[in-house]
Specification:
The complex is a heterodimer of chains A (455) and B (233). Chain A is built from 11 helices and 12 strands. Chain A is an alpha+beta fold. In chain A, helix 7 (262-292) packs parallel to helix 11 (419-429). The radius of gyration of chain A is 50 Å and the shape is rod-shaped. Chain B is elongated and about 60 Å long. Chain B folds into 2 domains: 4-127, Response regulator (Rossmann fold, 3-Layer(aba) Sandwich), CATH 3.40.50; 134-229, Arc Repressor Mutant, subunit A (Orthogonal Bundle), CATH 1.10.10. In chain B, the strands form 4 sheets. Chain B has a 5-stranded parallel sheet with strand order 2-1-3-6-7, with helices on both faces. Chain B has a 4-stranded antiparallel sheet with strand order 8-9-10-11, with no helix packed on it. Classes of the chains: A alpha+beta (455), B alpha/beta (233). Chain A binds chain B through residues 234, 238, 240-242, 244-250, 252-253, 256, 272, 275-276, 278-279, 282-283, 286-287, 290, 296-297, 299, 304, 306-307, 310-311, 313-314, 317-320, 328-331, 337, 345, and chain B through 17, 19-20, 23-24, 26-27, 30, 88-91, 93-94, 97-98, 108-115, 118, 172, 175-181, 192-193, 222-226.
Chain lengths: 455, 233
Amino acid sequence: MKAFGKYISKYLLSFFVFALILLLVNILAFALTFGGIVSREYGSASPANMLEAVADDLSASCISEERLQELNRNQIWAMLLDAGGRCIWEVSLPEEIPTQYTIQDVAVFSKGYLQDYPVFVRNIDNGLLVLGYPKDSFMKLTGNYFPIRAIRIFPLFVTGILTIDILLLFLVYYFSKRKIAKNTEPIMASIKTLSTGRPVDLSIRGELSEIADSVNQASQVLSRQNQARANWISGVSHDIRTPLSMIMGYAQRIAKDHGAGGNIQQEAEIIRAQSAKIKDLVQDLNLVSQLEYEMQPLYKEPVRLSKLLRSYAADLLNAGIDPKYSVETEILPSAETVVIECDARLISRAINNLVQNSIQHNPQGCDIFLSLDCLQADISITVADNGVGLSAEKLRELEEKPHYMESTDERLDLRHGLGLLLVRQIVEAHGGIMKIANGTCCGIEIVLIFTKETA
Amino acid sequence: MEHSFLHSKKLLLVDDEPELLKMVSAILADEGFQRLVTAANMREGIAAVKAEKPDLAILDVMLPDGDGFSLMEQMRAWTDIPVIFLTARDEAADKLAGLGLGADDYIAKPFLPQEFLLRIYAVLRRCYKEDTTVLKLDSCTVDFSRAEVNKGGEILPLTAMEHRLLETLAKNEGRIVTVDTLCEALWGDNPFGYENSLNAHVRRVREKIEAEPSKPVSLLTVKGLGYKLLARK
């Protein structure tokens, strides 16, 4: 999402920069086009230079041959008027140009044209020097005066208008960015949700509604697939249950039948024990898939955890546990009356999975400790044993590697069952966390931590 | 554990799998239950409840002509015998918990025979008292109908609380009963903070039933959990 915002900024910013570059290019193009013409006109044949050169020549009483050639080359005519307005000297003066002028005539042409010839004048000692350039070679601004105030505020005006332009450009950039972000934010959020596998329902009107529809469709496809997978698992596990009940029932009968003979009894006991493993797997598998796709409704009610833990431990002991194992329960006084909202059946299931894990991994027998503690808002259920424990490597693997149910890795490791994954899912469904560590002296210690508010 | 008085109870099994019925019947027969009635569907089940008047019904949730839940509802019209559901789905168990249909227990398939028997005994024991109201302990006998303890000829009367405490323990003879269950039996729902009173009652009961109250052999403390009553072997 952040990356997308950055992407938009970058994109809009590039527009902004592009606009500036365009402006500079325009200025450059302007300079290149007009630079040549203007500089040429300001060369030696420019009115100012020419006036000065001719004036210098005239004050030296005679105009040079070289100057005359230059005037002819540029098709410039020249005349000198005395104080009475009479032409006392001329070079290539066209016929239609009069040789006598009144003071009004001089005032009019000195600003502009004489018979459509753009003319330029210069005051010299012997009179008024007039240079006439070819027709249509210069345009003269006859009304070229500006109020001084206007000239004075001109620099301020230019800087001001440029500042405002840049500001406006920036505002356009800012609001465009905000609008794009606002329109795309829900889409980005939905895609992010989708990427975690959860369903979304996006409703957007306007130009982007088509994208919203596609996202919704993708979500539906995902949901349907998840549903189909959960249903499939549920169906298979359902169909396995009844046959498995019979296998376990008969295996146990044979195991107890003294007429069957020792060997057969032992083998039946193995069938029974292995069937029990399949039973656990089937039960866990279904619940895991239901929790995974959030299809398992939680029946939350206020539960006194101390009571739940004692009741679980009593049931475990009453069901008859191998004397190799001992179960000790400790409920700290601070946790005795703690009540949290939870699904009691699932919490018992989680505790049972941990206890059964301890039993399975310690065939030589071990002591199992159940305890309940409450520290401020944290309520922790600890299941620990003093058995073989875990190697540091295995511990890291448990914490880091995704469970095969959640991974698409080919190297599935089915030996570890679903026990811990289910515990983690149950705890997470209650907003809690699970911590696995090696016990203080030996064995393993698993702590389920719930919070009073979230649980 | 003393179960024999429960073996005279008549059990009704309703399941559409004849093989499963056969196996469950065999397990129950092995255990000593002599009076078993089976039915393969809802119709037969209702007929059997009417005709045979069983003491406990074990119903499969999925039946060919309906489901176990509606069978139970129909049964409830004329009998309130305990009901245990056999379910092949986890959801069914949730439904039971969620709807609070008033079933006594449910057993999820697949089940281990001993687990199955344990649940049946637990429900039967909860619902039916032993015909003989006299419990033999290591150093005395307890007569529940007269609320008396006979300790070597000496007759000691039981208070109402002591009677209820002993009775709750006796119903679960040989099994751990948690302090929570005992407090609930003595003081009803939400019995928070009655643990000390419970200890006091236990101490007085021990004085009446134990030869040496400081070294109990019949009413044992299970550390951290509750108490356990052991009958005379």
